[in-house]
Amino acid sequence: MLRKCPDCGNDLSSSAVACPHCGRPQRKSSSPIELSGILIIAVVCAGALIWRLSSRYEGSSEAAQAVPPETIIARPTREGRGLTARIGYNRKLSLIRVENGDPFTWSNCQLSLNARGISSGYARGVAAIKPGMTDAALLESAEFVDGDGRHFDPATEPVATLEIACETPQGHLAYGGKF
């Protein structure tokens, strides 16, 4: 099949590599089969990449939901007038953080961990807890002791409740919280 050279206008065979008159190289168009093959490979690669990325995100969200939070916050169980406290328990460090939310210092505080009814649970005294975030009391759960002298063991028993009773300028006040 003959066609015209765009540079010199002479006839040239469609199978020629270059124009025999002026030497212009002949550009060959890609065949539809070659283009289809490249397109199929691109679609397969894109699909594999999307599948790989989506399975990675699904796995990470499942793992995040399966692990309980490291720090749990106590919910107050007593209503009415009492101590205003924010209590957190870090399971990994077995550390209880008691923040005084009142504008005055609490003194001669008695804390009871996991107290049930007439059972006193595990107790610990704290001389004073000043108000504010920076003066929060940090207590290791193993520092709490029961009536028989046994220390609380966070490996065998979860922290469930914390009761606090302190002297304040407004008299004897208390707080109860459940984790």
Structure description:
This protein has about 180 residues and is of the alpha+beta class. The chain folds into 3 domains: about 1-30, no CATH class; about 30-65; about 70-179, Immunoglobulin-like, CATH 2.60.40. About 20% of the residues lie in helices and about 35% in strands. It is built from 1 helix and 11 strands. The chain has one helix spanning about 30-65, and strands at about 1-5, 10-15, 70-75, 75, 85-90, 95-100, 105-115, 120-130, 135-140, 160-170, 170-179. The strands form 3 sheets. It has a 5-stranded antiparallel sheet with strand order 4-11-10-7-8, with no helix packed on it. It has a 4-stranded antiparallel sheet with strand order 3-5-6-9, with no helix packed on it. Strands 1-2 form a two-stranded antiparallel sheet. A hairpin with a 4-residue loop joins strand 5 (about 85-90) and strand 6 (about 95-100). The radius of gyration is 38 Å and the shape is rod-shaped. The N and C termini lie far apart (about 85 Å). The relative contact order is 0.14. The mean pLDDT is about 85.
